[in-house]
Design goal:
Elements (H helix, E strand, L loop, with lengths): L24 H33 L13 H4 L4 H5 L5 H12 L4 H8 L3 E3 L3 E4 L2 E4 H6 L5 E2 L2 E3 L8 H27 L15 H27 L11 H11 L5 H5 L3 H33 L9 E3 L12 H5 L14 H33 L6 H8 L2 H30 L6 E4 L4 E4 L12 H12 L3
Helix pairs in contact: 1-7, 1-15, 7-9, 7-15, 7-16, 8-9, 9-11, 13-14, 13-15
């Protein structure tokens, strides 16, 4: 085994400065073993992800179909069954009192406007609890408003975020482990040269990043710019995969191939660097539009379009009035478990930390360059860049965190939920609107759009 060099140039292999075997064999081996274990955890997260997708898809849907005539009324919920139950007046009075004490800002907004929101599977105050089906029975006799969901209703779910982070983590860890395995086996003979340096999984990483995180993501972003919606399905980590690509082309095995064409390497470096910055800025735009939705400060906005021709019943308001009632047709979130909020907040934290890691070498290299030094700016950049180790470390920690929470929530949804959905009722009009249930993260809905959402999540697009 040859001696370690922080960076190899020319016909020899090139590796990042961090980590390196100058740290000492024990420390270096510990770091590599840690990331190898993280890789196995990430694979376990993907396996859990696929298992839950299969379970969600295999959900019994004999009680509803997105093509059924009554689907615009009840969606994928069991509101029809529960609202047909004879309500207990005392129970309904107690339930309305409990709802009036809600702590959710959006629910409070609905109540101030004279609506009754049902946004949880159950709720309680002072030891008195009610379940969703009992609450739905209180709207027996109400006119159900038929509607179709707007694109923003089925947005980026916590399940989708988990998938995005798992894929990103796998890419980071694979690049790290392959590079360090080559470093461990290095013997000063330099690169083999040519395309032989790039293996099958390398090609999968390159092509999936180019096709998913870059091309697909930008196509969807252009559509987003043309029609901004608060709850988009755009991944907020696609830029990080582009950043990974911009980084790894400077190191083994990609540098061994690109060093044969310095002009191509320079052009790719600039293109990927600029693309990363542009995609990061575009992601900031996505977060800026969606932050009020994520933080639940957006307020009430319409998420469904009324099907006026299907409005029937004994409502005290006209069909035209009901179909123009934006709050009644609002896109109200449904709260399953407080752990889901941790994923939403953690996803933003991961974005911020990865951003700081990406910016770090630019700041330090520029500072050290202007205070004087013996190295060029590009050399200083490589010397201070902690991204090759901090990037996979950050993704690994958050990936394990998300896997633990998301898997727990997924199992909870499989065992403790039964098509509960958001409900908004208008006592004044004697009408009620039922939204889509997220009890299977919408994977129990239309097979065509379901397949697209799954593929999109796994491409981190």
């Amino acid at each position: 085994m040859g001696s370690y060099r922080p960076v190899y140039y020319g016909s020899e292999c090139e590796y990042p400065r961090f980590p390196n075997r100058r740290w000492g064999s024990c420390i270096w081996v510990f770091v590599v073993v840690f990331f190898a274990a993280a890789f196995l955890v990430s694979l376990g997260g993907i396996a859990a992800n696929i298992f839950l997708i299969i379970k969600f898809i295999a959900t019994d849907t004999t009680n509803f179909s997105s093509q059924a005539p009554e689907f615009p009324l009840y969606k994928n919920s069991r509101f029809e069954e529960c609202s047909s139950l004879v309500p207990d007046a005392a129970n309904c009075t107690a339930i309305m009192d409990i709802i009036s004490h809600t702590s959710y800002p959006l629910d409070q907004d609905y109540l101030r406007r004279g609506y009754i929101p049902i946004s949880t599977a159950w709720r309680g105050v002072n030891g008195t609890y009610f379940d969703w089906c009992t609450a739905a029975s209180c709207f027996n006799g109400y006119t159900v408003i038929p509607s179709t969901a707007r694109p923003g209703v089925i947005g980026l779910t916590t399940f989708g975020i988990w998938t995005n982070v798992n894929i990103l983590t796998l890419k980071y860890l694979f690049a790290f482990l392959k590079r360090n395995w080559a470093l461990y086996r290095s013997d000063d003979r330099g690169c083999k040269g040519g395309i032989r340096e790039i293996g099958l999984i390398d090609w999968v990483l390159l092509l999936s990043t180019a096709g998913g995180e870059i091309i697909w993501w930008w196509v969807d972003y252009i559509e987003f710019v043309q029609n901004p919606i608060p709850n988009t399905t755009l991944s907020i980590y696609a830029w990080a995969a582009t950043w990974l690509l911009a980084s790894i082309i400077h190191y083994h095995p990609y540098s061994c191939v690109l060093d044969r064409s310095p002009v191509l390497k320079r052009v790719l470096s600039w293109v990927l660097a600029l693309l990363t910055v542009a995609q990061w800025a575009a992601t900031i735009h996505v977060l800026a539009v969606g932050r009020r939705y994520t933080l639940e400060t957006l307020g009430i906005y319409q998420g469904y379009d009324c099907v006026e021709s299907m409005v029937t019943g004994t409502a005290q308001c006209s069909a035209q009035r009901l179909c123009s009632d934006a709050p009644l047709l609002g896109n109200m979130p449904f709260y399953w478990d407080f752990l889901e909020h941790m994923i939403s907040q953690g996803s933003v934290a991961l974005f911020v930390i990865l951003s700081l890691v990406a910016i770090q070498p630019f700041v330090l290299a520029t500072w050290r360059y202007y205070i004087g030094g013996a190295y060029s700016w590009s050399e200083l950049f490589k010397r201070v860049d902690i991204g090759p180790i901090a990037g996979p470390a950050t993704a690994s920690i958050f990936g394990a965190f998300f896997t633990g929470i998301a898997a727990s929530v997924g199992v909870y949804l499989l065992t403790h939920t039964d098509r509960e959905a958001p409900i908004v009722a208008s006592p004044y009009c004697n009408a009620v609107h039922v939204g889509l249930s997220t009890w299977r993260y919408y994977l129990d809905l239309d097979p065509n759009s379901r397949a697209l959402r799954i593929v999109k999540a796994f491409f981190n697009a």
